Structure formats: structure tokens, C-alpha cells
Carbohydrate sulfotransferase (Caenorhabditis nigoni), 227 residues
Amino acid sequence: MNRYLKLLFAIIFTACILAYSNLFQFHGYCNSENLNSENSTSSEFSKNLKLPQKVALENSLEICRGDNLKQCIPPLMKYKQLYRTSKPNNLVACVIEKTFSTFLTAIMCFLHDQKSFRESNRTLESDIYGERLCKDKNEFTELKKIEKWQKMSIFAVVRNPVDRFVSGFTDKCLREKVWRKYKSRCASCRTNLTCFVDKMYDRMMKFAKNPYKGIDFDDSHFFPQSW
């Protein structure tokens, strides 16, 4: 059952990525001839794979019930926290990576100190994460460290989870190919989607059973938004 589920997810994500690539004309990234043979997923396998009708028809709520519950990723976990504040506006933004996070960080920086933001000749688009103006100025990793947070409005931006996954895999593993510089990124799977889904599933289950401190690049971009 567990194996069938992961294969089903891999096929769905493959279809989404192909559609995503065609939409933005990223031609060549998903063509099997451009992938390393040891890291590519067989198209014939996807065509010939026949999942049990029960698995194919069940939705996620039906799958994660009863005895199957232990195979599903827990919906809630204590995970790392990222907050950006704007005290003049009594706002706290809960930042979720790969979910409008860079732009939201820039917006909160502007609201935090509009004068400095303007004087630095920055724009919301140019205030990139690695060179952000408000680094360590309005940023917190625990809610309790924010003074009078109880009187502030707290919000978060969330994203369709499939869209977030497809966007993350396409941007980081297919377009940027971050694994060329950092071998462990993209779960060391390069462009192999099935490999990536399997490894991230195993990593999520490992974290759910015994939360670890070494949260890495892939964890930050692909772990559930509800954690």
C-alpha cells in the first residue's frame, strides 16, 4: 500500500511538472533524452503501471484513516518558526519558505522601516533574501521573543501544496540545478522525481517520529506548510 501511494504521487507530480514546464515554455527540462539515464524515470513504466483501483480512486482523507494512518505524514508538528514584524503597524508575518517568503520578507521590511528602505534605493523586487535590508532587525524565530505580540495581528500566506511542490522542484532541481553546486540538495536525486518523492517522504516520516535539529535546504522548501 505504501509503495503504491508513493508511486501514485510521483506520477501525479510528473504530470503537473510537465504541464508547468509547457505553460512557461521550459522546453528541454523534462525531456527524457536530456536526463541522465540513471536519474531519469522511465516513461514506459509510467504508462504501463496499473495501480489497484482502490488506491486510484481513494482521496487523501480516505487513505489516511484506520490502519493506513501510520503511513501518512502528520498534519501538525513542532517545526522551525520564522517571523517578520512591523511594530508601527502591529503586524507579525509567519513566513513559510517557498510560499511568497522572499517578497513577504521585503514587504515586512518596508513596513518596519519605510524611511531606511526608501533611502537605500531598494524595491520589493530587489530586496533579495541574501542581501535583505532588515536582516536580524525585525526577524524572530520564536513568537515569545516578540514584545507584546499578543496585541499584534498575526498572519501567514499559504499556497496550494501541489503547486508549492511543483514550483519548488521545477525551480530548484530542474531550472537552477542547485545540486550541481551542493550535491546533497534535491535529496541527491538531481532531476529524478521518483527518487526525490521517495526520499522526501522518508525524511518527513523520520522527522515526525524523532524531530532532528539538522533541518536542511530541502526540508525548508518541501516540508508541510502546516508544520
Remarks:
- Strands lie at 83-86, 91-94, 139-140, 153-156.
- Residues 7-11, 13-57 have pLDDT under 50 and may be disordered.
- The first strand starts at residue 83 and ends at 86.
